[in-house]
Structures are given as C-alpha cells and as structure tokens.
Fold:
Amino acid sequence: MVFDPRTLDQPKDISAYRDQRYQGSVRDQEVALRTSCTLYVGNLSYYTKEDQVYELFGRAGDVRRVIMGLDRFKKTPCGFCFVEYYTREDAELALQNISNTRMDDRVIRADWDAGFVEGRQYGRGKHGGQVRDEYRKDYDPERGGYNRAIAQKSAEGTPVFWARYQYNRGKAI
Structure:
C-alpha cells in the first residue's frame, strides 16, 4: 500500500449554497460542483489586484485563470473572484489551505463553483455590486465604506455616522 497524504485530509464537502441562476437541474449542478476545478473566492478587498490572487492561489497549484468580480455598472472590483485550476486536485488543495486565510487584512472565503460562465463576473446587487454588500450596516473601508443604500440616505439628509462623527448633509453636528 502506498502512502498518499491527500487521503488524510479530505476536502470539505460542497456547501449547501447553490447558485439560483444556474442554467440546469439541481442534479446537474451537484455533478458540476463535485467535478469542478473552479473556486469562488469572496470577501476580497475592493483594492485586491488580480496578480495578488494569482500569487496566493498559485501556491496550491497551476492556476488557469482568475476572473475578478466587477460592479455591473462601474466595471470596478466588487470583492469577489473566480479562480480556475487545471486540475481538481490543485483546486482541492487551495480550498483546504487557502480558504479562511488573510489577504489584504481580510479573511477570504473560498467555495466550489460549478464553473465560470461569461456574465457571472458582474455583481448581482441592484446597485451593481454584490447583494451581500447591499445589506451591510457597518463601515468597511476595504469594501467601499458604507453600503450604497446607507450612503444614498446620507446624501438625502438622513443622519449617518462617518468615522465616529455624526454628519447631517455634510456638516458636523
């Protein structure tokens, strides 16, 4: 019997999350997730560059390509990407060892993706970014500050806290 260290640490099973816009059956999506060489990487800083992702994920194996997530309207990074590997084994290694590590002072998370399809690089939120950022209530400078709904209310005159000071229509109270 040959010792294979990969058998000791089996990759985490596919998550319960499913892409609601997947163009196939649930069973097809399950099969795609179990055979995919693509990872979804979330919670990236808006300032993370593609070459940083290549450098980090390249430590696990040969990266085929990185597709940075973009704001649908502004075409600027919006905090996620897809990382495609040449082999499933390299993708598994990345998922085991890189998910939940830090990049640009943020804990990134990775999960299996059924495979990149053109158009998925754009955020699905109503303001063009990610949906999860639409509901964020905290101030996060690495993800553009407050979410756009709060920033919009601020511009309309609703008091909002900015950097520990309360402002109303741009004037300190």
User: Anything to note?
Assistant: Confidence is low (pLDDT under 50) at residues 124-132, 158-169. The beta strands are 38-42, 63-70, 77-85, 102-103, 106-107, 109-113, 160-162, 165-168, 171-172. The chain has two domains: 26-127, 136-172. The domain at 26-127 is CATH 3.30.70.330 (Alpha-Beta Plaits).
